[in-house]
Amino acid sequence: MTMFDRKRQPPRRSAEALRLVSVSKVYGSGGSAVTALGGVTLSLAAGSFTAVMGPSGSGKSTLLQCAAGLDRPDAGQILVDGEEMSGGSEAALTKFRRERIGFIFQQYNLMPTLTVEENTALPLRLAGRRVDRDRVREVLTQVGLGERLGHRPDELSGGQRQRVAIARALVTEPGVIFADEPTGALDTRSARDVLSLLKESVRLHGSTVVLVTHDPVAASYADSVLFLADGRLAGHLPAPTAEAVAERMTHLGDQAGQRVHHDPLMEV
User: What are phi and psi of 212, to 5 degrees?
Assistant: First the structure.
């Protein structure tokens, strides 16, 4: 796999890439209300690679949705790259996302009629930013697709499509990249390549990646793992191994409903 260009320096960033302060989200009302997030507070440093794990219904997807500005929390504060996420109009929130956040999804979300190069440049066009074709091609070369610029998604393998999605997220140089089960549709080898690519983007470009996954092996590529249970933080594992993550997950039910005692902000 092509290595990242070591000469390119990341843009100046806040030392804190993401901060959540008492973020809550409740679905439904009355007796049928479900607390998806119950006052989550955490801080992620710039240039970190963090995996978020938890059993089904733990709140990990809601955490990503709220932190990425795809859903609005009912209470709390979210800051990305030192700037508070706008609580104003939907247009303001969309602008904030386009300027500060990158996304990588399980199903790639590529436009089938656009080429690899055009898909990668799409976030820049949507944000009204000038498209630097040399920069777009540089990023695609970095993810191993320099020879596939004119191909369309249906001409690529699943692993190659996910590389396009990674390039699309990297090209805007966002404050945080959120990856939601990005290897869920890939074979083992392609998944390993994609995770290595994410890890390399952190190490060589100072990217900040938040990976939501159910896979202990995927989580082991991260610098640290945050565990959720019943919408609350339920643990933190630095320097994770797949075995240690799997073991923690088997015991997570015992911690459900308990807050992590960390005063006052979980720093990762």
Answer: -95, 125
Contact predicate 20/68, CB 8 Å: no
Give me the number of domains the chain comprises: 1
Output the pLDDT for position 72: 92
For residue 128, pLDDT over 70 is answered with yes
Range of the domain at 199: 16-267
Residue keyed to tokens 């390399």: 200
Rounded distance between C-alpha atoms, residue 43 and residue 28, angstroms = 28
Rounded CA gap, 35 and 32, in Å? Answer: 10
Residue 203 lies in a domain: yes
CATH number, domain of 202, equals 3.40.50.300
Q: Residue type for 163, please?
A: R
Query: Out of 82-91, 114-123, 204-213, 258-267, which region has the weakest mean confidence (pLDDT)?
Result: 258-267
**CB-based contact 166:198 (threshold 8 Å):** yes
How far is residue 253's CA from residue 44's CA, in Å, rounded to a whole number?
25
Instruction: Please report where in the chains the tokens 């015991």 appear, as a residue.
Output: 251
Q: Residue 12 — pLDDT band, cuts 50, 70, 90?
A: low
For residue 86, being part of any structural domain is answered with: yes
Q: Is residue 172 part of a domain?
A: yes
Supply φ then ψ for residue 16, to 5 degrees: -110, 115
Residue 6 domain flag: no
Instruction: Compute the distance between CA of residue 192 and CA of residue 112 in angstroms, rounded to an integer.
Output: 25
